[in-house]
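Note to self: the last two entries modelled the partners one at a time, which told us nothing about the interface. This time every component goes in together.
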Amino acid sequence: MKNTPHPADLSAQIAQSIRDAIVDGRLLVGDRLPSEAELAEQFSVSRPTVREALKRLAAQSLIRTQRGATGGAFVNHLSYAEAHNQQITTATLLLSMNAISFDVACEARYALERACAPLAARRRTAAHLKILHTEIATQSQPDLSDEAFCASDVTFHRGLVDAAGNPVLSYQLAGAVEAMQPLMNMITFTARSRVTIIALHCRIADALEGFDASSADSALYRLEEYTRDLGRDLLSARA
Amino acid sequence: MKNTPHPADLSAQIAQSIRDAIVDGRLLVGDRLPSEAELAEQFSVSRPTVREALKRLAAQSLIRTQRGATGGAFVNHLSYAEAHNQQITTATLLLSMNAISFDVACEARYALERACAPLAARRRTAAHLKILHTEIATQSQPDLSDEAFCASDVTFHRGLVDAAGNPVLSYQLAGAVEAMQPLMNMITFTARSRVTIIALHCRIADALEGFDASSADSALYRLEEYTRDLGRDLLSARA
DNA sequence: ACCATAGAAATGTCAGACATTTAAATGGCG
DNA sequence: CGCCATTTAAATGTCTGACATTTCTATGGT
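The predicted structure of the combined assembly is written out below.
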């Protein structure tokens, strides 16, 4: 796919070589890599070069290192939490660097959320409902800052996603929702708009409580419309 | 969120410090970072330590480096393609390392795909339809290997996602779909199952051609059911 | 005015040393 | 014999200094 007219750095080559070994299973989770000195000899490079390669892999959570006698670099078990963090970092930067319009981001976010609404309506537990109601209560506090309101909003929607009971979906979506928070934070939430949003959150929570997928979907649709209206107002107010 | 009982490596701290500067806008796309020697002095560490930090950031595509007189480390413009690649790497490893059941992965994938089907039905262009029909033709070749069939399947579904005309959605979903390919590759596609899948692909393409969102959705639902049946057969055949 | 060449600045790489952490081997003592 | 403190070894973490390589810039000659 990508030519290497100027062959990449040695550390990048070595990192790729080890990455390949992990991806196609020659190195399994928990396996210990050779020591830095051994790797340096194997690849015929110096130890600092090997270290740079290892740091690259560590940055992707592919390996973890331990110091001490039985230490070394180990193939990491990539947890949902770690994958999730990487997803957020990448998605946040992608959004902030590519002049994504509020509309496009909003559309993507709610399309994804509506995708898991039917599952959530089927599988939600009492614990999930409790989270939603707690956040609704938080959002109803009149002296809440805009940032705190947004943060609670993220938690609410993450609760909705988690209610779908599919960790793969949660990982994908929570990243998308959280990455949008900086964009959402630009909005000033008036008292009136908060009331509208909270009312829709209530409709969503009620729909889930009643296992009513279509009602949850329509509430999400209304919330999407309303959020995009707020974004439009923000833009026109600036002009 | 995460305690640091043993403070992290210096290189990790420095990487985080620079990452923060990029994320909250103190460093903008295209900006040049100070030279390695200057960074070393600023952070009171040695050059190799700074270099390890920079390699971490490079591994996340946050920066790119150039050699030569006007060279240095520059804040990278994170393109969709780069973000997409990272997404695939992470998602693939996550799926391979966490014993994700075929059912869960399948459910997530089709939930996401169905999320963009309505958008695709509204916005698909002739170019999108052409991609879908091309892949259907490829899949109809009787002497196609299972791997090639899967690859064409991925391209087909990616075309479907792209037809939604939302780059954020494309980035999120294409990663999820491609990450599932290794799981799909375990399936042996009999001639009969191929016929069924291709028929459903045709229904999807026709639905998009006719701007018929609900028909596309039901076809996707059937395809999900069928795919999960194939996965179940695979498991039972092993027992 | 143009081209070749030398210089400067930056990253890329290497070698060797020392510091620190950690677990295991060792030894003494009850 | 068994338990605890100590030593030892192996590994990563960090530093210093040097040299190689790449690439732009400025200088100089024709």
